[in-house]
Every structure is written in C-alpha cells, then in structure tokens.
Specification:
2 domains; 7 helices; mainly alpha; 203 residues; single chain; globular
Length: 203
C-alpha cells in the first residue's frame, strides 16, 4: 500500500470514529481501541498509557488520543516528519465530522426540538453512550489489572492496590480538602511514579 493510501486510511478511520460516535471522547474510546489494535498501529498497553497522559493534558480527550495515534502512525510510515503529518491527518479526521454535524444540527434543531421523534432519539442515545463508556472502563481495567488474560490467577494485585489507594486519596482530597484538580493531577503523578519505582524494586 502506498504512503498516500496509508495516510488516507488513517484519516478515514478517524473520520468514521468521529462520525458514528455519540457522547464525546469516552464513548469514542472502544472504537478507537478496536481500530488501532485491529490495524496494529499501537499495542494495548501503549493505548492505556496514553489515555492516562491525555487525561492529564489540556484539550479534549478524543483529539488528544487521535493526535497521538496519528503521530505514532506517521512516524512508522515516514520517520520523524511523518509524525506531524499523521497527527494532523488523524486530528482532522476525528474533528471534521463533528464540525459538519454540529453545523447541520444548529440549523435544524431549534425547529425540530419539540418533535417526538427527536426526543425519542435523544432518549435512546443516552443509555448507548453509557454503555460505550462502560465498555471503555472494562477494557482499560482488564488491560491494567489482568495484563496476561482475564483470570483470577492473572490479577495484578500490586496495580490494583496502587490504583485503589490513589483513587481513595483523590476522592478524599477533592471532597474533603477541596483541592485544585491540577494539584491533584501532580500528586497522583508523583504517587504513580513512586509506586512504579517501588514495583520495580519488589520485582
């Protein structure tokens, strides 16, 4: 396959994801995971790692992860210059459908917002979005806690314990201390780094 077709495939993949996903970045995640793994653009572990990074960096989650996947794919095709091209192609692909759709919706929604059909569509989409987000949570949890397959014997107790401790600390700091989210991200990152070093020492 030529380089042009490879980049076209990258664009069309993210265009389809952006076009057929309702509910924002988290709802996109199962489709992004499926497409990336199916095309062997990234490993599952790499996707999970960047989910953590994209949640801790400015900008919409879906755009961040599309940019990252595009950059990695572009690098694989054209070395360093291809990274920027791949990032631009994937980002444009995931953003363009939303841009087009929102322009159309903005023109017609006010006219049809009282329609029973439109209200029924909105009612039907809500549980679908929840299901997509739940699927993303399960996929990520399986990768982190069961890296060698979904079985009790493969459960990574250390990762689970670290995650639970950091989650509890985060909840306490947010609800009890009213700590700023940026400070919480820094604290969580520091705890994660420390836990990673401790995990290597234990091994």
């Amino acid at each position: 396959m030529s380089i042009f077709l490879e980049f076209l495939e990258l664009f069309l993949t993210f265009f389809r994801i952006g076009l057929f996903t309702f509910g924002g970045g988290y709802a996109m995640l199962p489709l992004i995971q499926d497409a990336v793994l199916q095309n062997e653009w990234l490993t599952e572990e790499a996707i999970v790692n960047f989910i953590a990074v994209s949640e801790s960096t400015p900008g919409p989650f879906a755009i961040n992860i599309a940019t990252y996947v595009g950059m990695e794919r572009g690098r694989a095709l054209l070395d360093l210059p291809g990274g920027f091209l791949g990032a631009a192609v994937a980002t444009l692909g995931v953003v363009l459908p939303s841009f087009i759709v929102i322009l159309i919706v903005a023109r017609v929604y006010k006219k049809f917002q009282e329609s029973k059909t439109v209200q029924g569509c909105m009612t039907g989409l809500r549980p679908t979005v929840i299901g997509l987000i739940a699927a993303a949570v399960i996929n990520i949890g399986t990768t982190v806690f069961f890296p060698d397959g979904f079985a009790l014997a493969n459960l990574n107790f250390y990762n689970m314990a670290v995650s639970l401790v950091i989650a509890v600390i985060g909840v306490v700091l947010i609800f009890k201390k009213k700590i700023h989210p940026i400070i919480l991200i820094v604290i969580s990152a520091a705890l994660g780094i420390g836990a990673g070093f401790l995990g290597e020492l234990i091994k």
